[in-house]
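Hypothesis: this fold can be encoded by more than one sequence.
Test: take the structure tokens below, design a sequence, compare later.
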């Protein structure tokens, strides 16, 4: 499979994630969209690593996976705390974290 195919797939995945972040109001769906965007970035790194044979992109991909796991854990904890206190996880209505 050519590198262009991987890049097109990554662009489509990133676009779907971007649309999800910009249009959805549920915090869980926004978090899933961010994860989709991070996975698209990983796919791009690995596609270029396949083309060039560079192992540095693999290391970057592992760091992105670690950051995505940490973001998911912390984000889910915040969403659960907000849901317990307010009963809703609508992103537009949650302004209590700013104060």
């Amino acid at each position: 499979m050519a590198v262009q195919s991987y890049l097109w797939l990554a662009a489509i995945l990133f676009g779907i994630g971007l649309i999800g972040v910009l249009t959805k109001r549920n915090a869980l769906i926004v978090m899933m969209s961010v994860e989709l965007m991070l996975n698209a970035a990983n796919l791009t790194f690995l596609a270029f690593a396949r083309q060039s044979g560079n192992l540095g992109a693999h290391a970057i991909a592992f760091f992105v996976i670690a950051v995505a796991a940490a973001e998911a854990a912390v984000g889910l904890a915040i969403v659960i705390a907000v849901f317990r206190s307010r009963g809703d996880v609508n992103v537009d209505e949650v302004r209590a974290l700013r104060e």
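The CA atoms of residues 22 and 57 lie 28 Å apart. The longest helix spans residues 56-86.
Hypothesis status: open.
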